[in-house]
């Protein structure tokens, strides 16, 4: 359920989302269409702050398991098999990759008194809560993996509809600001989740449900206190199965800038997934301690990362609105992240691990915030198919989350023997990936 989020069919979903080299006349038409599109009215502070809280809650419920809880459960259920963590996270991301455009189309076509997006926020949240219980009580790795698939689907659906709501509502002048605030919230949420989790490592149920309760509270606050227009008056044409499947595809020549943004996100999330999936194991290996002991260290280190993420996310988001520039900030963010990842890869001790982690956090906040604003700038057919295209954007998240952990399992074995793992090489590959991500967005033409 990694979100994400659009017509001429090509051959396969993956090929359809990969950008072809833009033709000058098509790029010009896209730029003209973007400039001619009427802007939306500004949203009020109630919308902004409850959106920030809701995304904070979802990430605390959803990413805390990925940050530490899943690692602890895998180590308990299958000690000595860290590769199972990659298989589990990959399976969840693959499921989302296959379902997210369908969920986006369904959201676009929902007609209720409370709007199109809120029913999916509530439904996703409920599935997400069930998933946390399944993971907490899982008797084996297979059930744990099934719980993570449910978590990806449930919490990812809630998150994607929150993000689709920003596409529905935000004018260009507020996209960087809101993206900066929500990016900051989503980056620090797992920090608070890990801090909480360290107190419940001996109780699997509380390990998952305490962070999850925060997600439930903040999603409900948004649903109950932020108005969404009645969608029953919107038009809805009948759709066949063939037409639905065709909506998984789009013509990248028609929307080249959206395609370049997609490809940049793909490399960004590849780097992030390679960097984060095995963090707990990496720290334990580099510091010579047990995986269970890492929770407290990562929690303490992550608290320092709050300031770093704030600097990158909020600073970059607000400045990109003020200067009306996105691409430069994203490229700089990728370079900063790469520097931090390389520092971690070659860190001889905890001090350098801290320096590398904080540097990565600054770049991560900057890249993620401004790229979210850039996505809204280049999103095609926002008025009718925002959910569909956000779902296709989700491929750029779910494909790396599905394949990168599997690739990481192989990278870790390169150049080592026995029980050793090549974590340094893994972080080097992650750094190269985020540099490429920052370079790719420079090909976008309709946004500065």
Quick rundown:
By secondary structure, this protein is an all-alpha fold. The protein contains 16 helices and no strands. The longest helix is centred in the N-terminal third of the chain and has 33 residues, at 45-77.
Structure description:
- The chain is mostly helical and 448 residues long.
- The protein is 76% helix and 0% strand.
- It has a single domain, classed as MFS general substrate transporter like domains (Growth Hormone, Chain: A, Up-down Bundle).
- It has 16 helices and no strands.
- It is globular and about 60 Å long.
- It is a multi-pass membrane protein.
Under CATH, the topology can be stated as: Growth Hormone, Chain: A
**Which range best describes the helical content: under 10%, 10-25%, 25-40%, 40-55%, 55-70% or over 70%?**
over 70%
Low-confidence stretches: 1-36
Question: Considering the protein shown, what is the CATH homologous superfamily?
Answer: MFS general substrate transporter like domains
State mean pLDDT (0 to 100 scale): 82
């Amino acid at each position: 359920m990694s979100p994400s989020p659009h017509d001429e069919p090509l051959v396969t979903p993956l090929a359809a989302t990969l950008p072809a080299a833009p033709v000058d006349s098509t790029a010009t038409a896209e730029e003209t269409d973007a400039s001619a599109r009427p802007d939306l009215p500004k949203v009020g502070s109630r919308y902004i702050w409850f959106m920030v809280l809701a995304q904070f809650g979802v990430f605390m419920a959803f990413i805390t398991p990925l940050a530490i809880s899943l690692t602890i459960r895998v180590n308990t259920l299958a000690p000595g098999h860290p590769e199972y963590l990659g298989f589990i996270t990959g399976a969840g991301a693959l499921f989302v990759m296959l379902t997210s455009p369908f969920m986006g189309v369904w959201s676009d076509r929902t007609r209720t008194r409370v709007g199109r997006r809120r029913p999916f926020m509530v439904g996703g949240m409920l599935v997400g809560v069930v998933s946390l219980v399944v993971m907490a009580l899982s008797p084996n790795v297979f059930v744990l993996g099934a719980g993570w698939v449910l978590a990806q689907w449930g919490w990812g659906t809630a998150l994607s509809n929150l993000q689709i709501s920003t596409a529905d509502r935000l004018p260009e002048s507020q996209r960087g600001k809101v993206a900066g605030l929500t990016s900051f919230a989503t980056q620090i949420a797992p920090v608070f989740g890990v801090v909480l989790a360290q107190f419940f490592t001996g109780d699997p149920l509380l390990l998952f449900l305490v962070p999850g309760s925060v997600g439930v509270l903040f999603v409900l606050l948004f649903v109950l206190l932020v108005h969404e227009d009645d969608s029953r008056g919107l038009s809805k044409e009948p759709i066949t199965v063939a037409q639905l499947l065709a909506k998984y595809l789009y013509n990248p020549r028609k929307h080249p800038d959206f395609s370049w943004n997609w490809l940049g996100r793909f490399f960004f999330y590849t780097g992030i997934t390679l960097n984060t999936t095995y963090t707990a194991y990496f720290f334990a290996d580099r510091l010579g301690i047990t995986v269970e002991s890492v929770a407290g260290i990562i929690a303490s280190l992550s608290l320092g990362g709050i300031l770093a993420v704030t600097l990158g996310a909020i600073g970059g988001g607000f400045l990109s609105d003020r200067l009306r520039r996105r691409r430069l900030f994203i490229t700089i963010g990728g370079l900063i992240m790469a520097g931090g990842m390389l520092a971690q890869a070659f860190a001889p001790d905890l001090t350098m691990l801290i320096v590398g982690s904080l540097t990565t956090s600054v770049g991560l906040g900057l890249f993620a915030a401004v790229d979210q604003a850039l996505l809204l700038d280049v999103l095609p057919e926002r008025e009718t198919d925002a959910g569909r295209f956000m779902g296709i954007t989700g491929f750029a998240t779910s494909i790396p989350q599905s394949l990168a952990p599997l690739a990481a399992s192989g990278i870790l074995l390169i150049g080592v023997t026995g029980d050793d793992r090549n974590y340094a090489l893994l972080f080097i590959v992650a750094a190269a990936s985020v540099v490429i991500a920052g370079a790719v967005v420079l090909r976008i033409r309709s946004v500065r």
